[in-house]
Amino acid sequence: MAASTLPVVASIPAVEPDHLDWYRQLGASHRQRDESAAHASRTLQDRDREQQRVMRRRWPGIVEAMRRVIRSYNDGAGHEALILSEEANDAGRDLVVQVVARGPQTLTMALTGGDLCVSTAPAVAGAADDGRQWITLDEPDDETVAVHALRHWLLRL
């Protein structure tokens, strides 16, 4: 029979008490880092939820301001050139308004989270590659938000 070889066990040096303190400090440092990151994440989520609540409360006022702008445009055109329809998609998570003009050209505005996504069909020259423009709603006035969302598209009709 062949002789079996036993694995060689390396000698592990004794751990000095100072080394254990260093590992304890390292663990405490990592815990603080993780707690700080979790706190920052919760703060961002809380801010985003509050911004969404504020925008959902403002949405009816913004839509009414859009209706006023469209009525004014239609009065100037002498006929109902633009038609606004309001809907909710994805089980009511995103609030959506569509404005349809002749051609048919459509402007879709969706409140997604705390931002307003404006997209056109067909795409407007100068818009982002996918035809979308994101508007942050930091304007305190609903009329200003409505005008900002509609103006670029209306000028190109």
Low-confidence segments, given as residue ranges, are none
Give the CA-CA distance, first to last residue: 95 Å
**Overall 3D geometry?**
elongated
- Total number of strands: 5
Mean pLDDT rating: 82
- Beta content: 15-25%
**Main β-sheet, in a few words?**
5 strands, antiparallel
C-alpha Rg, in Å?
A: 30 Å
- Measured as a percent range, the helix fraction is 40-55%
Helix count, per DSSP? 2
- What is the strand arrangement across the widest sheet? 1-2-3-4-5
What structural class do you assign from the helix and strand content?
alpha+beta
Please write the string of helix (H) and strand (E) elements: HEEEEEH
Brief summary of the model shown:
The chain is of the alpha+beta class and 157 residues long. The chain is 48% helix and 22% strand.
Structure description:
With 157 residues, this protein is of the alpha+beta class. The protein has a domain at 59-155. Helix content is 48%, strand content 22%. It has 2 helices and 5 strands; from the N terminus they run αβββββα. Strands 1-2-3-4-5 form a 5-stranded antiparallel sheet, covered by helices on one side. Helix 1 packs across helix 2. It starts with 16 loop residues before the first helix and ends with a helix.
